[in-house]
Amino acid sequence: MKTVAIIGGGGFAKEVIEVVEILGYKVYGIYAQEEPEIQYSYKGYLDDLLESRSEFSGVILAIGAFNPKTIKARNSILSFLKLNNIEQISIISPFARIGTGVEIGKGVYIAHGSVISVDVKIGDAVSINTGSFIGHDTVIFPNSVIGPKVFVGGSCIIEEDVTIAASSNILQGVRIGANSTIGISSLVLKSLKSNSFTLPEPSRVINRD
Fold first, then answer.
1. Which pLDDT does position 206 carry in this prediction?
2. What angle do CA 181, 186, 189 make, to 5 degrees?
């Protein structure tokens, strides 16, 4: 049984740990800036991770992202892991569907119910959350985070450090520029430049009284 370290202690980490244990890994401990309220042993943070690296086979980054600030925080951790040659392990739920010809980088997380269609390329440290669909021939660059129930059409390009929030839809052939943020339930019909930010039309509340 391989032993892994988890970086992150929030709700997303709990989802990742569920998949980790289904796959038969043992969780050595949690590394986070603050002690989390979950049932696994808290080991400290990155300096402590470095000191105890002989105790586990690799690490899993279990910190989500929803804007450039949180993506930057993930990037800082990824740089630390690369600098210190600490292996990242990819975690793919057995309840996800992976098509033929799919290429998956290091440190990738693919959650329950996700569908990755044929000939998709997924870069290092990409996170694809519950129930998302990634269309054929799409390329996702490193450290992009795809939220739950996102639809990405075929032949799309998602550049590095992009966040796509839950229930968003990306039209086939669209390119999303680096460091862009796609807000919850957005519909993206055309390509976006780097550092773009999108939000859907807010819902209107009608008082019937």
1. 61
2. 95
160 and 141 Cβ atoms separated by less than 8 Å: yes
Cα 6 to its chain centre, rounded Å, is: 14
Mean pLDDT across 147-155: 98
Asked whether residue 81 is domain-assigned, the answer is no
- Cβ burial of 120 (10 Å; 0-12, 13-18, 19+) is buried
> Nearest CA to 90 among 31, 160, 20?
20
Task: Report the C-alpha gap between 174 and 152 in whole angstroms.
Answer: 9
- The domain spanning residue 21 has which CATH number? 3.40.50.20
* Structure confidence at residue 199 (pLDDT): 86
Asked if 43 contacts 28 with a C-beta cutoff of 8 angstroms, the reply is: yes
Q: What is the CATH number of the domain that holds 168?
A: 2.160.10.10
Give the domain extent around 162.
90-192
